[in-house]
Design goal:
It contains nine helices and eight strands. It is of the alpha+beta class. A hairpin with an 8-residue loop joins β2 and β3.
Length: 361
Protein backbone atom coordinates (compact mmCIF):
# COMPACT_ATOMS: atom_id res chain seq x y z
CA UNK A 1 0.00 0.00 0.00
CA UNK A 2 1.33 3.48 -0.72
CA UNK A 3 2.55 5.38 2.28
CA UNK A 4 2.99 9.00 3.28
CA UNK A 5 4.72 11.03 0.62
CA UNK A 6 3.52 8.84 -2.25
CA UNK A 7 2.21 10.29 -5.47
CA UNK A 8 2.17 9.19 -9.08
CA UNK A 9 1.56 11.24 -12.20
CA UNK A 10 -0.89 9.44 -14.39
CA UNK A 11 -0.29 9.19 -18.09
CA UNK A 12 -2.96 8.79 -20.73
CA UNK A 13 -3.43 5.80 -23.02
CA UNK A 14 -3.06 7.68 -26.28
CA UNK A 15 -1.81 10.85 -27.91
CA UNK A 16 -4.67 12.86 -26.44
CA UNK A 17 -2.94 12.05 -23.77
CA UNK A 18 4.38 37.39 -9.26
CA UNK A 19 6.65 37.02 -8.32
CA UNK A 20 6.96 37.10 -4.60
CA UNK A 21 9.87 35.77 -2.69
CA UNK A 22 9.67 35.93 1.04
CA UNK A 23 12.49 37.30 3.15
CA UNK A 24 15.54 35.08 3.50
CA UNK A 25 15.75 33.03 6.68
CA UNK A 26 16.78 35.26 9.51
CA UNK A 27 18.05 34.48 12.96
CA UNK A 28 17.33 36.40 16.10
CA UNK A 29 18.51 40.01 16.16
CA UNK A 30 22.09 40.56 17.32
CA UNK A 31 22.35 40.64 21.10
CA UNK A 32 22.94 43.88 22.90
CA UNK A 33 26.18 44.31 24.90
CA UNK A 34 25.58 43.49 28.59
CA UNK A 35 25.33 46.34 31.04
CA UNK A 36 28.32 46.19 33.40
CA UNK A 37 27.83 47.25 37.00
CA UNK A 38 30.70 49.39 38.38
CA UNK A 39 33.08 47.46 40.63
CA UNK A 40 32.59 47.70 44.41
CA UNK A 41 35.33 49.38 46.44
CA UNK A 42 35.97 49.54 50.22
CA UNK A 43 34.88 52.74 51.99
CA UNK A 44 37.77 55.22 51.71
CA UNK A 45 39.06 57.28 54.69
CA UNK A 46 37.20 60.50 55.55
CA UNK A 47 38.14 63.37 53.17
CA UNK A 48 38.06 67.14 53.50
CA UNK A 49 34.62 68.71 52.93
CA UNK A 50 35.44 70.31 49.57
CA UNK A 51 36.69 67.05 48.20
CA UNK A 52 33.56 65.28 49.45
CA UNK A 53 31.33 67.79 47.65
CA UNK A 54 33.28 67.26 44.42
CA UNK A 55 33.02 63.52 44.74
CA UNK A 56 29.28 63.78 45.33
CA UNK A 57 28.81 65.87 42.22
CA UNK A 58 30.88 63.38 40.23
CA UNK A 59 28.83 60.47 41.53
CA UNK A 60 25.61 62.22 40.49
CA UNK A 61 26.99 62.75 37.00
CA UNK A 62 27.98 59.09 36.71
CA UNK A 63 24.52 58.03 37.89
CA UNK A 64 22.79 60.25 35.30
CA UNK A 65 24.99 58.91 32.51
CA UNK A 66 24.26 55.36 33.63
CA UNK A 67 20.50 55.92 33.52
CA UNK A 68 20.76 57.43 30.03
CA UNK A 69 22.82 54.48 28.82
CA UNK A 70 20.37 51.94 30.24
CA UNK A 71 17.42 53.67 28.58
CA UNK A 72 19.27 53.82 25.27
CA UNK A 73 20.17 50.16 25.43
CA UNK A 74 16.65 49.09 26.32
CA UNK A 75 15.22 51.21 23.54
CA UNK A 76 17.64 49.69 21.00
CA UNK A 77 16.69 46.20 22.17
CA UNK A 78 13.00 46.96 21.73
CA UNK A 79 13.48 48.15 18.17
CA UNK A 80 15.72 45.28 17.13
CA UNK A 81 13.25 42.72 18.46
CA UNK A 82 10.17 44.39 17.02
CA UNK A 83 9.98 41.94 14.09
CA UNK A 84 11.19 41.47 10.54
CA UNK A 85 10.74 44.01 7.81
CA UNK A 86 7.77 43.11 5.58
CA UNK A 87 8.87 41.55 2.32
CA UNK A 88 8.29 43.41 -0.93
CA UNK A 89 5.27 42.35 -2.90
CA UNK A 90 4.99 41.37 -6.57
CA UNK A 91 6.66 43.69 -9.05
CA UNK A 92 5.67 42.11 -12.36
CA UNK A 93 2.59 39.90 -12.03
CA UNK A 94 0.94 38.74 -15.19
CA UNK A 95 -1.79 36.51 -16.57
CA UNK A 96 -1.04 33.84 -19.13
CA UNK A 97 -4.05 32.79 -21.22
CA UNK A 98 -3.64 29.48 -22.99
CA UNK A 99 -3.24 30.20 -26.69
CA UNK A 100 -3.26 33.87 -27.54
CA UNK A 101 0.52 34.20 -27.51
CA UNK A 102 0.63 37.27 -25.28
CA UNK A 103 0.85 38.08 -21.62
CA UNK A 104 -0.98 40.98 -20.02
CA UNK A 105 0.44 42.84 -17.07
CA UNK A 106 -1.74 43.66 -14.07
CA UNK A 107 -1.16 45.81 -11.02
CA UNK A 108 -0.46 44.46 -7.55
CA UNK A 109 0.31 45.81 -4.10
CA UNK A 110 3.84 47.07 -3.62
CA UNK A 111 4.25 45.36 -0.27
CA UNK A 112 2.82 42.50 1.71
CA UNK A 113 3.46 41.04 5.14
CA UNK A 114 6.29 38.54 5.21
CA UNK A 115 5.70 34.98 6.35
CA UNK A 116 5.64 34.15 10.02
CA UNK A 117 9.12 33.05 11.05
CA UNK A 118 9.60 30.55 13.86
CA UNK A 119 12.47 30.88 16.31
CA UNK A 120 12.63 27.13 16.93
CA UNK A 121 14.47 26.24 13.72
CA UNK A 122 13.17 24.98 10.36
CA UNK A 123 10.45 22.37 10.80
CA UNK A 124 7.41 20.99 9.01
CA UNK A 125 4.02 22.46 9.81
CA UNK A 126 1.31 19.80 9.68
CA UNK A 127 -1.56 21.91 8.41
CA UNK A 128 -3.80 21.77 5.35
CA UNK A 129 -6.10 24.68 4.49
CA UNK A 130 -4.52 26.85 7.21
CA UNK A 131 -0.92 26.18 6.25
CA UNK A 132 1.15 29.40 6.39
CA UNK A 133 2.35 29.15 2.78
CA UNK A 134 -1.26 29.28 1.55
CA UNK A 135 -2.36 32.42 3.40
CA UNK A 136 -0.72 35.35 1.58
CA UNK A 137 -2.71 36.39 -1.49
CA UNK A 138 0.40 37.95 -3.03
CA UNK A 139 2.78 35.03 -2.54
CA UNK A 140 4.05 33.22 -5.63
CA UNK A 141 7.20 31.97 -7.29
CA UNK A 142 9.89 34.35 -8.43
CA UNK A 143 10.01 34.85 -12.19
CA UNK A 144 13.28 33.32 -13.35
CA UNK A 145 15.06 32.16 -16.47
CA UNK A 146 15.14 28.38 -16.79
CA UNK A 147 17.52 26.91 -19.34
CA UNK A 148 16.84 23.32 -20.34
CA UNK A 149 18.64 21.15 -22.92
CA UNK A 150 16.66 20.29 -26.06
CA UNK A 151 14.39 17.34 -25.56
CA UNK A 152 15.77 14.05 -26.91
CA UNK A 153 13.59 10.96 -26.60
CA UNK A 154 16.26 8.69 -25.15
CA UNK A 155 17.13 7.57 -21.64
CA UNK A 156 20.16 9.88 -21.56
CA UNK A 157 18.25 12.75 -23.12
CA UNK A 158 15.46 12.48 -20.57
CA UNK A 159 17.93 12.33 -17.68
CA UNK A 160 19.67 15.50 -18.88
CA UNK A 161 16.35 17.32 -19.35
CA UNK A 162 14.88 16.43 -15.95
CA UNK A 163 18.15 17.01 -14.09
CA UNK A 164 18.26 20.55 -15.49
CA UNK A 165 14.55 21.02 -14.71
CA UNK A 166 15.12 19.95 -11.11
CA UNK A 167 17.70 22.73 -10.71
CA UNK A 168 15.16 25.29 -11.92
CA UNK A 169 12.55 23.92 -9.52
CA UNK A 170 15.04 24.00 -6.63
CA UNK A 171 15.92 27.60 -7.48
CA UNK A 172 12.36 28.88 -7.02
CA UNK A 173 10.81 26.52 -4.49
CA UNK A 174 13.85 26.41 -2.21
CA UNK A 175 13.91 30.14 -1.35
CA UNK A 176 10.11 30.24 -1.19
CA UNK A 177 9.92 27.45 1.38
CA UNK A 178 12.92 28.51 3.47
CA UNK A 179 11.36 31.97 3.73
CA UNK A 180 8.65 30.27 5.77
CA UNK A 181 11.30 28.56 7.91
CA UNK A 182 10.58 25.15 6.40
CA UNK A 183 13.37 22.54 6.16
CA UNK A 184 13.97 22.54 2.41
CA UNK A 185 16.29 20.04 0.74
CA UNK A 186 16.07 19.07 -2.95
CA UNK A 187 14.55 15.67 -3.73
CA UNK A 188 16.83 12.85 -4.85
CA UNK A 189 16.35 12.02 -8.55
CA UNK A 190 16.13 8.47 -9.88
CA UNK A 191 15.77 7.24 -13.46
CA UNK A 192 14.66 3.60 -13.31
CA UNK A 193 15.22 1.53 -16.44
CA UNK A 194 13.52 -1.76 -15.58
CA UNK A 195 9.86 -2.83 -15.68
CA UNK A 196 9.51 -1.93 -11.97
CA UNK A 197 11.42 -0.12 -9.25
CA UNK A 198 11.52 -0.28 -5.45
CA UNK A 199 10.70 2.67 -3.20
CA UNK A 200 9.90 3.20 0.45
CA UNK A 201 6.27 3.21 -0.67
CA UNK A 202 6.58 -0.24 -2.23
CA UNK A 203 7.46 -1.74 -5.60
CA UNK A 204 6.12 0.35 -8.47
CA UNK A 205 5.30 -1.11 -11.87
CA UNK A 206 6.24 1.02 -14.86
CA UNK A 207 3.36 1.68 -17.23
CA UNK A 208 1.13 4.36 -18.72
CA UNK A 209 -0.16 5.16 -15.22
CA UNK A 210 3.35 5.84 -13.92
CA UNK A 211 5.04 8.52 -15.98
CA UNK A 212 6.72 9.80 -12.80
CA UNK A 213 6.49 8.97 -9.12
CA UNK A 214 7.29 10.61 -5.79
CA UNK A 215 7.91 8.95 -2.44
CA UNK A 216 9.59 10.26 0.72
CA UNK A 217 12.00 12.86 -0.72
CA UNK A 218 12.70 10.76 -3.82
CA UNK A 219 11.49 11.57 -7.31
CA UNK A 220 11.45 8.76 -9.89
CA UNK A 221 11.17 9.23 -13.65
CA UNK A 222 11.13 5.92 -15.56
CA UNK A 223 11.78 6.70 -19.20
CA UNK A 224 9.51 3.87 -20.35
CA UNK A 225 6.57 5.46 -18.55
CA UNK A 226 6.83 8.75 -20.45
CA UNK A 227 5.15 7.41 -23.61
CA UNK A 228 7.61 9.18 -25.87
CA UNK A 229 6.30 7.15 -28.80
CA UNK A 230 3.04 9.07 -28.36
CA UNK A 231 4.34 12.50 -27.36
CA UNK A 232 7.61 12.66 -29.23
CA UNK A 233 9.34 16.03 -29.03
CA UNK A 234 6.86 17.61 -26.62
CA UNK A 235 8.94 18.97 -23.70
CA UNK A 236 6.12 21.11 -22.27
CA UNK A 237 4.12 18.00 -21.39
CA UNK A 238 7.12 16.28 -19.82
CA UNK A 239 8.04 19.40 -17.86
CA UNK A 240 4.51 19.77 -16.47
CA UNK A 241 4.35 16.16 -15.26
CA UNK A 242 7.80 16.49 -13.64
CA UNK A 243 6.75 19.74 -11.94
CA UNK A 244 3.62 17.95 -10.65
CA UNK A 245 5.73 15.30 -8.90
CA UNK A 246 8.04 18.00 -7.59
CA UNK A 247 4.89 19.63 -6.23
CA UNK A 248 4.50 16.59 -3.99
CA UNK A 249 7.98 17.32 -2.66
CA UNK A 250 6.86 20.85 -1.83
CA UNK A 251 3.97 19.32 0.10
CA UNK A 252 6.36 16.92 1.85
CA UNK A 253 8.78 19.64 2.95
CA UNK A 254 5.97 21.92 4.09
CA UNK A 255 4.21 19.23 6.16
CA UNK A 256 1.08 19.25 3.98
CA UNK A 257 1.77 15.72 2.75
CA UNK A 258 1.98 14.27 6.26
CA UNK A 259 -1.15 16.13 7.35
CA UNK A 260 -3.07 14.82 4.31
CA UNK A 261 -1.99 11.23 4.90
CA UNK A 262 -3.05 11.43 8.52
CA UNK A 263 -6.55 12.27 7.30
CA UNK A 264 -6.47 9.56 4.62
CA UNK A 265 -5.38 6.87 7.06
CA UNK A 266 -7.95 7.96 9.63
CA UNK A 267 -10.79 7.83 7.09
CA UNK A 268 -9.55 4.79 5.14
CA UNK A 269 -7.77 5.06 1.79
CA UNK A 270 -10.73 3.79 -0.24
CA UNK A 271 -13.45 5.55 1.73
CA UNK A 272 -15.20 8.56 0.15
CA UNK A 273 -13.45 10.86 2.63
CA UNK A 274 -10.05 9.27 2.04
CA UNK A 275 -10.39 9.45 -1.73
CA UNK A 276 -11.46 13.09 -1.55
CA UNK A 277 -8.41 13.94 0.56
CA UNK A 278 -6.21 12.16 -1.99
CA UNK A 279 -7.78 14.23 -4.77
CA UNK A 280 -7.15 17.45 -2.84
CA UNK A 281 -3.50 16.47 -2.48
CA UNK A 282 -3.11 15.60 -6.16
CA UNK A 283 -4.93 18.66 -7.44
CA UNK A 284 -2.73 20.91 -5.34
CA UNK A 285 0.34 19.34 -6.95
CA UNK A 286 -1.30 20.16 -10.29
CA UNK A 287 -1.64 23.79 -9.23
CA UNK A 288 2.00 23.90 -8.09
CA UNK A 289 3.06 22.54 -11.49
CA UNK A 290 1.12 25.29 -13.24
CA UNK A 291 2.74 27.92 -11.00
CA UNK A 292 6.19 26.75 -12.03
CA UNK A 293 5.53 26.94 -15.77
CA UNK A 294 3.70 30.24 -15.38
CA UNK A 295 6.66 31.73 -13.52
CA UNK A 296 9.17 30.72 -16.21
CA UNK A 297 7.42 31.09 -19.57
CA UNK A 298 8.53 34.04 -21.71
CA UNK A 299 11.36 34.91 -19.30
CA UNK A 300 14.15 34.56 -21.87
CA UNK A 301 15.00 30.93 -21.13
CA UNK A 302 13.93 27.77 -22.89
CA UNK A 303 10.44 27.50 -21.35
CA UNK A 304 8.67 28.81 -24.43
CA UNK A 305 5.11 29.87 -25.09
CA UNK A 306 4.65 26.79 -27.27
CA UNK A 307 5.73 24.51 -24.39
CA UNK A 308 3.39 26.33 -22.04
CA UNK A 309 0.41 26.18 -24.40
CA UNK A 310 0.86 22.46 -25.07
CA UNK A 311 1.12 21.75 -21.35
CA UNK A 312 -2.04 23.84 -20.79
CA UNK A 313 -4.03 21.82 -23.34
CA UNK A 314 -2.62 18.47 -22.26
CA UNK A 315 -4.06 18.74 -18.75
CA UNK A 316 -7.58 18.05 -20.04
CA UNK A 317 -6.50 14.56 -21.11
CA UNK A 318 -5.38 13.50 -17.61
CA UNK A 319 -7.25 12.59 -14.47
CA UNK A 320 -9.76 10.08 -13.19
CA UNK A 321 -11.86 10.08 -16.36
CA UNK A 322 -8.85 8.76 -18.23
CA UNK A 323 -7.49 6.43 -15.56
CA UNK A 324 -10.93 5.23 -14.33
CA UNK A 325 -9.84 5.86 -10.74
CA UNK A 326 -11.21 8.21 -8.07
CA UNK A 327 -8.11 9.54 -6.32
CA UNK A 328 -6.72 12.24 -8.63
CA UNK A 329 -9.73 14.31 -9.73
CA UNK A 330 -11.72 14.50 -12.93
CA UNK A 331 -9.97 15.54 -16.12
CA UNK A 332 -11.80 18.88 -15.96
CA UNK A 333 -10.59 19.56 -12.41
CA UNK A 334 -7.10 18.34 -13.28
CA UNK A 335 -6.96 21.05 -15.95
CA UNK A 336 -8.75 23.66 -13.83
CA UNK A 337 -6.31 23.53 -10.92
CA UNK A 338 -3.21 23.45 -13.15
CA UNK A 339 -4.45 26.52 -14.99
CA UNK A 340 -5.29 28.30 -11.74
CA UNK A 341 -1.63 28.09 -10.76
CA UNK A 342 -0.33 28.92 -14.24
CA UNK A 343 -2.44 32.02 -14.85
CA UNK A 344 -1.60 34.15 -11.82
CA UNK A 345 1.30 32.41 -10.05
CA UNK A 346 -0.30 32.86 -6.62
CA UNK A 347 0.01 29.99 -4.15
CA UNK A 348 -3.19 30.97 -2.32
CA UNK A 349 -5.01 29.92 -5.50
CA UNK A 350 -3.69 26.40 -4.86
CA UNK A 351 -5.50 25.91 -1.56
CA UNK A 352 -7.41 22.81 -2.64
CA UNK A 353 -7.98 21.92 1.01
CA UNK A 354 -10.21 24.97 1.45
CA UNK A 355 -12.17 24.33 -1.76
CA UNK A 356 -15.71 22.90 -1.75
CA UNK A 357 -16.08 19.20 -2.52
CA UNK A 358 -17.64 20.08 -5.87
CA UNK A 359 -14.31 21.64 -7.00
CA UNK A 360 -12.25 18.54 -6.19
CA UNK A 361 -14.49 15.74 -7.44
Amino acid sequence: MPGPGQGAYQGAPGPQQGPYQGPPPQGPPPGQPPWHQPPSYPVPPRKPTGLIIGLCLGAVAVLVLGVVAIVALNRGSSVSNAGFTPAPGPTSPYELPPNNGSASTSSAPTSSPGPTISSTGPHKILELANHPILQDRNAGLQNMVCTLPPWVSTQDGAEAFFTAASKCLDAVWGPFLTAYHLPFTPPALHFPTGPSFDTECGTIQVGIATAAYYCENNLYVPFKGLQTDQYGNNPGVYLALFAHEYGHHVQEVAGIMDAAWQKIYAAGQNSPEGLEMSRRKELQAQCFSGMFLGAHVDRGGTVTRDMYNKAWNDQETRGDNTSKSHDHGTNAHYAQWWRAGAKDNRIADCNTFAAPSSAVS
